[in-house]
Amino acid sequence: MGDLMSREIKKFDSNNLISYSLLNVVMDSMDECIVYVNTEGIIEMMSEAYCEFLNIKKEDAVGKHVTEVIENTRMHLVTQSGNKEIAQVQEIMGRKMIADRIPVYVDDKLVGAVGRVLFKDVNELTRLHNKINTMESKLNLYQEEFKNINKAKYNLNNIIGDSMIMLKLKNNIKKIARTNSNVLITGESGTGKELFAHAVHNESIRADMPFVSVNCGAIPYDLMESELFGYEKGAFTGAKKGGKIGKFKAADGGTIFLDEIAELPLKMQVKLLRVLQDHEIEKVGSNIKEKVNIRVIAATNKNIDELVKKGEFRLDLFYRLSVVNLKIPPLRDRNGDIRLLVNYLINKISNKEGIRVDGIKENALKSLETYEWPGNVRELENTIEQALNFLDNEKVIKLIHLPPRISGVKQSREVKDLKSVVEEAEKDALIQVLRTTDDNKTKTAKILGVSRTTLYEKMNKYGLS
């Protein structure tokens, strides 16, 4: 061993000796099969991992010609040709391994070559290849599931109406879909603002990218920032182990729809403004900014101008959001569309419920056309569904099947059971209070004496969300 060290030390001056020793330490700590030979093919360095693989001692390898130590090697040939050999198959002890052989140059002079075993057995590569394929398949599956979840479901064909005001609105959607400008959709509750947001996305060049919908009024204030922007692991008590991606990052490349934008607290309005200005987000618990490429579509049934005057909504954020403004007309202003909508809704609901319906009587239709519809299309859909529930063996919707507030006819039929009575009363109470509070969920929940969570559960149950 002493002769070996003396022989090696002679090859290096005092300045290089430290570097040589450090390089040996690094090679051994990497736990990889690495060998270095000089231009004569003599082994000058070999990692402990390589020695273990070959079942030899390092002192028996260093100083010998590489062909005496490594079976079927080409290291000495690389030092002669100066050409690197990447991912070459080499058989050692009856096993086919894969290795790299790289020539080493100092000041443009060839001084040796480094060899590194990538895989000790070709089967390792096959297993890794199969593992990667499996991971790619799972990733593709998750990406497909993600796209299906975060996908705009509706397009222009789902917007029912051929009145002048609706035709103009559809034409405007086609125009604004060509750009990436932010859009603010305004309109009364029940006019179908989300439907129009879906249509804008599906008409745009982002149609194949995610469409992420967020109800700003349904997220608790203390969780809003983490829901929108995500959080790092350990950011707060109860945080998921690996952290969480936020809605904005999930929508990267596509569109994020911020429904009930007027419910956004002022603190979050400041953060949203920064995202719109800089196109960057910052996760909770992180100081690293991430770029996002998104189009923002916001919607509200509130009068934003009044909220700005009251100091409840930032003027600068309003300007950023309302680059393009889509105002959805209430149903009373598009009376000519009611017949189309009624027929569409009868087909939609009867197919869903498996009920045969042959149509609607003219006097019943006239009552629907003369009603003011404070709940707009949502109220019309609920009315048609309610009528279908009272058809029994009849196949045509009659005046008697409509609620008294619309038909003016006091219904003489008895309700089937107590549960139906309670549910109908509960639904009517929800509708009336929501109208009174201008769809303000916090005030509605307070008046009804329930939590916001319970309110949203009831609204979902009765199709009012």
Outline of the structure:
It is built from 21 helices and 16 strands. It has helices spanning 2-9, 14-29, 48-54, 58-61, 66-69, 75-81, 122-149, 164-176, 193-203, 224-229, 247-250, 266-278, 304-309, 315-321, 338-353, 362-370, 376-389, 404-407, 418-436, 441-448, 452-461, and strands at residues 34-38, 43-46, 85-92, 95-106, 109-119, 183-186, 211-215, 230-231, 244-245, 255-259, 280-282, 289-291, 295-300, 324-327, 359-360, 396-397.
Main attributes?
single chain; 465 residues; alpha/beta; Beta-Lactamase; Helicase, Ruva Protein, domain 3; 4 domains; 5-stranded antiparallel sheet; 5-stranded parallel sheet
Please tell me about this protein's structure.
The protein has 21 helices and 16 strands. It has four domains: 2-124, 2-Layer Sandwich (Beta-Lactamase); 150-327, Rossmann fold (3-Layer(aba) Sandwich), CATH 3.40.50.300; 333-413, Helicase, Ruva Protein, domain 3 (Orthogonal Bundle), CATH 1.10.8.60; 417-465, Arc Repressor Mutant, subunit A. The longest helix has 28 residues, at 122-149. The protein has 465 residues and is α/β, with parallel strands linked by helices. The strands form five sheets. Strands 2-1-5-4-3 form a five-stranded antiparallel beta sheet. Mean pLDDT is 85; it is low at 1-15. Helix 20 (441-448) packs across helix 21 (452-461).
